[in-house]
Amino acid sequence: MSIIPNPLSEGNKKWINLSLAFIAAFGFGIGSGAVHTIYTFESRNHESESQCVQASLSLADYNRLELGDTLKEVQFILGVGIEQSSSSSQSVYLWANPDSSHIKAIFRNGVLQSKEQSELPSNVCIAHSE
Question: How many CB atoms lie within 10 A of CB 62?
Answer without folding.
Answer: 20
